[in-house]
Specification:
single chain; about 160 residues; alpha+beta; 5-stranded antiparallel sheet; globular
């Protein structure tokens, strides 16, 4: 019986330590405040990607705010050319942010595999990538559609 009590008193602290080690450094708990994501210096990007079959039913849904590549100059070029008076400006902690939301849709005419979601623009005949979200990928069949909804929140003065 004494061994069981000793084991119990050793196992419980070890279990608590193990659980806390997984949560202490988690991404959601490492954010100081709501404005940490909304910096005065950078644009926050969030993308939702839907793969729809030819009947319009959703087959795959991906979402991310973490990107493998962001090219700030190209991104600002796109946002500056896309912005209009319908894009709202909100104030959070005395800082103004503009919300720009755009949807892009591509119909595939042949089978393919997509391994990333990319926002790009053609500048002077050259395709320039602004943001890229790499993922495991998904197969696409002829007639299926990929729809991406991009949300940008950028500081304004």
């Amino acid at each position: 019986m004494d061994q069981n009590k000793l084991l119990f008193f050793i196992a419980i602290p070890l279990l608590i330590l193990a659980i806390s080690s997984f949560t202490i450094n988690s991404y959601s708990q490492s954010i100081d405040s709501e404005t940490s994501l909304l910096s005065e210096k950078r644009t926050f990007i969030f993308v939702q990607t839907f793969l729809e079959n030819s009947d319009g039913k959703i087959i795959t849904y991906l979402t991310s705010d973490k990107f493998t590549d962001i090219h700030t100059e190209t991104l600002n070029y796109i946002l500056d050319s896309e912005v209009n008076e319908k894009d709202p400006i909100v104030t959070i902690n005395d800082q103004k942010f503009q919300i720009i939301k755009r949807a892009k849709k591509i119909l595939y005419e042949k089978d393919n595999v997509i391994a990333s979601t990319i926002l790009a623009i053609n500048i002077d005949g050259k395709l320039e990538t602004a943001a890229r979200f790499a993922h495991d990928g998904y197969p696409i069949l002829e007639g299926e559609t990929v729809r991406s909804i991009w949300t940008f929140i950028r500081p304004v003065s």
